[in-house]
Amino acid sequence: MRRRASLVLLSFAVFFVAMAPTLRWYAFPRLAKIPPNQYQETVLEAKPATLLNYSTLKAERIEKLTIIQTLKGNVEESRRIERDAGRDVVVWDSLSFVAGPDGKMVSKIPERYIFDAHTQEPVHATGEMVDGDPVRREGIEFKWPFLTEKRDYQYFDAQTRTSAPIHYMGTRTFRGLEVYYFEQTIPWTEVPMPKAMPVKGITPEILAGSGLTRWYTTQRMFWVEPVTGAPVNGEEIHKEELRNARAMMGQDTVTVFEGHVKMREDYITAIVELVESNRLMVLLLVSYLPWSFLLLGLALFALALWLEARARARRQEAEPGPAREPVTAPV
């Protein structure tokens, strides 16, 4: 009976030891992925800010500027692209809506971001765009890969339509979470005019025809939870200018927007709670379950050996010794 039990335990030991690397290196890369139907809304604010008043064509100090950023998973487009790409694909239709202190639109920039659901690497397909302009992204945007590394990444900048390094600047603690801090600086760069303008009748073509050019610089900061690769906080020190503006505005350079953009507190709290729950699910696949299975398998293996050793000892005790011939005394 003990021999049968030891064989059963040995079978379970082999199973659990084999499952440990299988979960980590086979199941995790396939099961950990971004769902195609994800919806997320984030509100950021710049308080105070400098904003161009298009009625007076003067830059004015305002109390607050609000940026509402939405990410909506396009399931239908994901399935269409997956058929050709042969892998799990996520399509995010994004909109950055900028509102002034009166709630009216200052600008709105739509994007379509297409990427691999598992690795977050960009997938190039028809429809990839920023503000209606086709683009070809390199590197990441919005989200880092699962199990983010302590290194620099290429990060796509929607204003310039180009990618540049975003630098790993160290490990920090944010709201009780260990996070990696990343920073990227985009130097002054000429960028396209937004297609949606805040004043009726003014179009990008009219502004370009007057000789105006739009320039932009930003310092971008992210606090990224490394297990999930999700940013739990983001900030930008952002500045935009119109140049060659003397003919229309009486001076060469006019500030369009300047401010330190920060995520609103209630959205930080909600994102941290969401990331904490998702972090546990990823850790189960990548760490907790593999190590538990490995230790359980080793314990079962040791128990099986112990039972087998006890069974052998009992069998040896039960076996009769060699028969002895009777000894007779000589006559």
Strand share of the residues? 35-45%
Order of helices and strands: HEEEHEEEEEEEHEEHEH
Number of helices: 5
What is the CA-based Rg, rounded? 32 Å
Overall spatial form: elongated
Oligomer: single chain
Q: Report how far apart the termini are.
A: 53 Å
What is the count of distinct domains? 1
Q: How many beta strands in the DSSP annotation?
A: 13
The structural class is: alpha+beta
Overview of this structure, please?
With 331 residues, the chain is of the alpha+beta class. The chain is 32% helix and 38% strand. It has one domain (32-263). The model has no long low-confidence stretch (mean pLDDT 89).
Layout of secondary structure:
Layout: H1 2-31, E1 39-53, E2 58-62, E3 65-73, H2 75-85, E4 89-99, E5 105-116, E6 129-130, E7 133-134, E8 153-157, E9 162-174, E10 177-191, H3 204-209, E11 213-225, E12 230-243, H4 246-249, E13 253-263, H5 265-318
Antiparallel strand pairs: 1-2, 1-3, 1-13, 3-4, 4-5, 5-6, 6-7, 8-9, 9-10, 10-11, 11-12, 12-13
Helix pairs in contact: 1-5
Supply database-style keywords.
331 residues, alpha+beta, 13-stranded antiparallel β-sheet, 13 strands, 32% helix
